[in-house]
Design a protein that fits this description.
This protein is an alpha/beta fold and about 375 residues long. It has 2 domains: about 210 residues, Rossmann fold, CATH 3.40.50; about 160 residues, Response regulator (Rossmann fold), CATH 3.40.50.2300. Helix content is about 40%, strand content about 20%. The chain has 13 helices and 15 strands. β10, α9 and β11 form a beta-alpha-beta unit.
């Protein structure tokens, strides 16, 4: 109990604090400790960079960013949410990495009629029959990156794929998305424990199944450990490994190293997208934080730009919820991805790319875009949203 209560303690980051009427109070809850911490840290740092680029303001209002670590726990997330809504009276909430935590805290946020801007988690429920006028996702719907890789694997002629994902909402969405576009046989469909780090049993089962390809959705430390163990077991040379960007991004590359070389993955963003806002984002993120940004960081950054655009459109009158919602729907900002728009369920319609992990001109391992899998791709659940 002492550990949980300690996690509920909040870190307040205030940019040029002034009177309450001049502040935009943002409640930021994310996974900032444990094996998955890198994901939440990147979202936080991306958001902070967006705030910095706007001079410490979003939409002209000084920002009071209230940060809480959910410690990878839905119960802690609910405690933090309750405190931010009741004690801190935040105007907007954001930050959550994992869908099980978002699904646990969202009912209280929506009941309070507080807007939630998701920089990551995109569960099917909120894209379909449980869509909410107070929910906007600036990242993707959970299935989307997996749909893209399912199409790529099918197009390349693989006919017997082994599937692995954690047993939680986004894991189930992931494999459903992959199978929506991959119509071949599956020699295994395995759901592991969320947060699992030892895959000896799964690798033994995989070897016995003799697939011609493997698809994983294992973000953060889960993916790092799995890929290291996959390589150590000698499977990488025999069976190609595919994944979404979550399992093959810069955080995973840094931890695994040369074992990532040649892996294909899918993403809606990469550092080599050629537009001015992305070039500035990548350069300043590397300068400020000393590491290459991930797709998580890009989503945190775009969440900040979306909020900035909407607050600016309503001239700071964020208490007018109908006007603020309409401003969010317009998505009048220049995304690091390039073209960006919301569908009627407040999820993005956007392009998805094929990335390859290779060495750049400086000899660094990194992702580069080698093709486009989908253009203007929408999620599969939007027709069920009656909003």
């Amino acid at each position: 109990m002492k550990r949980i209560l300690a996690a509920v303690a909040l870190l307040c980051v205030s940019f040029n604090p002034v009177g309450a009427a001049d502040k935009l109070k943002i409640g930021f809850i994310s996974t900032l400790s444990g094996p998955a911490a890198a994901l939440g840290v990147d979202i936080r740092d991306g958001l902070n960079l967006a705030i910095k680029h706007q001079g410490g303001r979003l939409g002209g209002l000084l920002v009071d960013l209230i940060i809480g670590d959910d410690t990878f726990s839905p119960d802690v997330g609910k405690q933090l949410t309750d405190r931010m809504l009741k004690r801190d009276d935040v105007h907007i909430m954001t930050g959550i990495v994992f869908s099980n935590i978002l699904l646990a805290v969202a009912p209280a946020i929506f009941q309070d009629q507080t807007f939630y801007i998701s920089p990551n988690a995109g569960p099917a429920e909120f894209a379909g029959d449980r869509c909410s006028p107070f929910f906007f996702n600036v990242a993707w719907q959970n299935d989307n990156l997996h749909e893209a890789m399912g199409k790529h694997v099918a197009d390349k002629g693989y006919r017997n794929v082994y599937l692995i994902a954690p047993n939680y909402p986004a894991g189930r969405d992931a494999l459903n998305g992959f199978k929506r576009f991959y119509k071949g046989a599956t020699s295994g469909e395995v759901y592991t424990k969320l947060g699992q780090l030892d895959y000896a049993a799964e690798l033994a089962q995989l070897r016995a199944a003799k697939p011609d390809a493997v698809f994983i959705f294992l973000p953060g430390g889960m993916g790092i450990n799995f890929i290291k163990q996959y390589n150590a077991a000698g499977l990488a040379a025999a069976v190609p490994l595919f994944g979404p960007g979550f399992s093959a991004d810069e955080d995973v590359i840094r931890a695994v190293g040369e074992g990532m070389l040649g892996m294909f993955n899918s993403s809606h963003w990469n550092r080599d997208i050629d537009n001015p806002q992305n070039k500035r984002f990548v350069a300043d993120f590397e300068k400020d934080y000393g590491r290459a940004p991930t797709l998580y960081a890009s989503q945190g950054y775009d969440a900040g730009l979306l909020i900035d655009s909407a607050v600016r459109l309503v001239k700071g009158r964020i208490e007018d919820k109908n006007a603020f919602r309409a401003a969010l729907r317009k998505a009048d900002f220049k995304s690091v991805r390039g073209a960006f728009r919301f569908n009627s369920n407040h999820y993005p319609v956007q392009d998805y790319y094929l990335r390859l992990i290779a060495k750049d001109e400086k000899g660094r391992l990194t992702n580069r875009i080698v093709g486009t899998i989908f253009r203007n791709h929408a999620d599969a659940y939007v027709k069920s949203c009656k909003m």
